[in-house]
Specification:
The chain is mainly α and about 110 residues long. The chain is about 35% helix and about 0% strand. The protein has two domains: about 1-50, no CATH class; about 70-110, no CATH class.
């Protein structure tokens, strides 16, 4: 969005744009569904979740072909297997995918 605006691509085709930063995908989707936005750039998960709940939104361009998430833990947690029984905060879909992965092979999960 920023590149298109900065390079004049929107203006070239007669489009007047205003860039507004909205923190978080779920808030972004809420504003879009309310009719206060005509176009939004966001990751896949919030829009798909809203669509599954009945929101009438359409993805027409994608920049990534997979959901890009990182698992961030405290330093003492060195592997996915140590998360069993721990408290977590995450998008439910991501947490289910991580749980399904455990026990992960060394090639499918990494720790830093």
């Amino acid at each position: 969005m920023h590149i298109g605006k900065d390079r004049g691509l929107f203006a070239k085709y007669g489009l007047t744009t205003e860039t507004i930063y909205i923190p978080g995908g779920s808030i972004n989707v809420q504003v879009l569904v309310s009719g206060n936005l005509d176009l939004s750039q966001l990751s896949g998960a919030p829009g798909v979740a809203a669509n599954l709940e009945g929101a009438d939104i359409v993805y027409f361009a994608g920049l990534l072909d997979k959901l890009n998430y990182q698992l961030i833990t405290r330093p003492e947690i060195k592997g996915v297997e140590q998360l069993k029984g721990k408290n977590s905060a995450s998008a439910a879909t991501v947490l289910r995918r991580i749980s399904a992965c455990a026990p992960c092979s060394s090639g499918s999960a990494s720790t830093r």
